[in-house]
Amino acid sequence: MHVEQGLEAVELGTGPLAARDIVAVARHGARVDLAPEALAAMASSRSVIDNLAADDKPHYGVSTGFGALAVKQIPPYQRTQLQRSLIRSHAASSGAEVDREVVRALMLNRLSTLATGRTGVRPGIALAYAGLLNAGITPVVGEYGSLGCSGDLAPLSHCALALMGEGEVRTPDGRMLPAATALADAGLTPVQLREKEGLALINGTDGMLGMLTLALADLHRLLSTADLAAAMSVEGLLGSDSVFAADLQELRPQHGQAESAANIRSILAGSVLIEEHKTGGFTRVQDAYSLRCAPQVHGAARSTLAHAESVAAAERASAVDNPVVTLDGRLESNGNFHGAPVAYVLDFLAIAVADVASMSERRTDRFLDRSRSHGLNAFLAHDPGVDSGHMIAQYTQAGIVSELKRLAVPASVDSIPSSAMQEDHVSMGWAAGLKLRRALDGLTRVLAIELLTAARALDMRDGGLATTRSAPAVAAGRAAIREVVAGPGPDRYLAPEIEAVRVLVDGGTLLAAVEDRLGTRLY
């Protein structure tokens, strides 16, 4: 597998996908091609399925029903109907429409497994699936329908249904159309599924893996942004930077902690505000935990991220199907479709996200309390009493943090039996992925409010960017915020300002401005 320069195209061979490939296809519309080795591997394993289909013995997925109905042998003349009926009946999702990037990530992961040659589908099926992705046709999938075991069945079935020319899809411009119409408009032909192929299209952890991969990409940006927010708050609250020293981090060799502390040190380097505070007579002996312990909390989240990345890498290197065509040509049932490994880390990340957001909200609150802000106006108001400043922005943060704590309750412990007790333990990994996506959105908003608040406090502290005593990197972050939000003054309509900074955080623009000033990437 290789990725062309600029991530304009992703070529699938028989090896594992890279995380950046999934992001490129899911979010940025990169083209997908199948390598000759993948086409050859699929042709080889298909011959195994064809031989099994021709004998008189029952073979699961080839000549039997599915799940609890696997006891029924299906005669050859009904096997095309068997595969078609499987897809139609399993395309049973409900609820709000799942984001386009999630569906595209799911489809790419399934296509990657098809390309390994371990599923027994014909090469033409995989080429048709790649054609859907390359045409920008996205099947409509509801949020409910997957238990995260036996594959993300309903979501994957909607994608297979579109491949058959049935169901509803979204076009690249967002219009909802019947799949048959969208395929015809794109010059694509619906497929007719044969033995094993319907099952192979829906039996994998592809949706939860897609959500995990996208979340990991977002968390790299958000955890560095959390370090930036903490640094700006330390400076704005006249805190100490000595606690972030490298030798102190070495006393507790937690790798993620060292990275976060290094980020905060880099961002605060050259801060006149902090240096003035050190020489201004007796000061606080210690800062509050939300300032002093930021590397410990952010670092723990980074370590959790690293663990999740190892799980995701193993899953991307997997050929998840049941039954599977082994390398020596056997067709074997297995349990590799169980989503427990992915579900656990999705839940673990939601816990880390909630805690990072909780600490961010506590730093914001310190800015607003005159007894703890060290000389700033109450609520950072222009004229306290007449103006309320950022009082309610903190309420918004508090509401989000409370929601994040609820989202941190694990989904993976809540198994519900299905399929007449044949599938009596499931992972709920799909649900874990959806709630993590909501949690990441919440963290983005919480950090945006802290950054907006810290920038306002620093402007009130040192008179604005024209006379700033901030560290150069902090000044760069403040300048990026000031490009979209005006400086302190009487109360204004606050919601658009929060949204403007959220966009800076979500798109990585704010972090990029700081990294450009530093001349290096943050960890």
UniProtKB/TrEMBL annotation:
E.C. numbers: 4.3.1.3
GO biological process: L-histidine catabolic process
Official protein name in the record: Histidine ammonia-lyase
Name of the gene encoding the protein in the UniProt record: hutH
Entry's Gene Ontology molecular function annotations: histidine ammonia-lyase activity
Similarity comment: Belongs to the PAL/histidase family.
GO cellular component labels: cytoplasm
Subcellular localization(s) per the UniProt record: Cytoplasm
Domain of life, per lineage: Bacteria
NCBIfam families: hutH, PRK09367.1
Pfam annotation, one family: Lyase_aromatic
